[in-house]
Amino acid sequence: MTALAMQAQPSPGVQAQPASDCAASGIVVNALTGEPIVRAMVSFYGGASEPGAASDAQGHWAIANLRCGTRMPTATRDGFLPGNENLPGAEFGKRLIQLVSGSPAMDVKISLIPGGIVSGTVRDSYGDPIHGTQVILMRVKTQSGKRGLSQVGSAGTDAEGNFRVDGLDRGGYVVCAGSKQVTYPAGGGEPQVYRDSCFPGPLETALLTPFRLEAGREMRTAITLTAIRGVHVRGRISGLPAAKPNSAFRMGVDWIKATNSGYTGSGTATRVQPDGTDRK
Known about the structure:
Mean pLDDT: 83
Order of helices and strands: EEEEEEHEEEEEEEEEEEEEEEEE
Helix content: under 10%
Oligomer: single chain
């Protein structure tokens, strides 16, 4: 009897998996200066479990054991926008490369655009820095033909009142600062709170007067918060679970500040009494 060696065939309807013995190499550079970028993390889209590489001192990288086929290389590095992400359809197609088994793709160039930076200080009307101020950065975007603001970053001020938000794409921006600190007037009086302030102007006109940030550029600003008399908001929350006598609990309540631009404030925790009453 003669044994016949038969080649395994894929089952009908089952697509054969592409080979995973392809390779690619190239360089990562600064899109504005052409200088090599060190320690950029290089990988390929759709390859979460595939190998990757860090670029060396000359910006060079090489990756083996990649899945063959039409692939898109990308790279990330702090201070730069992710390479080849969020590209228009036509431009996306230009960045695709063909990985073929036995023929490594070479001289693949990945250009990273330096991110913009927004930095500055937050002080009170006396010129003193306000520590722990929440700074929110919003970008003007157009969706469904309507312009609006979208939060893209945030930061807290340090002991000197400084803040910094980096890795930003080019576009129109508005930066706002707000503090939960309480202050008192000279000579004594009721507690005061700081009024939120925005640059380059009030949020009500932000869509008309955003500042322009370009790739690799830094915009510095100084924001002043003015102390004003605060207001109290009281209310009752219904539908709460039964509470033990003389007890209270904490829950999240959103205090929303509405403007023509649609900006809202952040949530905070408040003490709710057993009868559902609340005070802010």
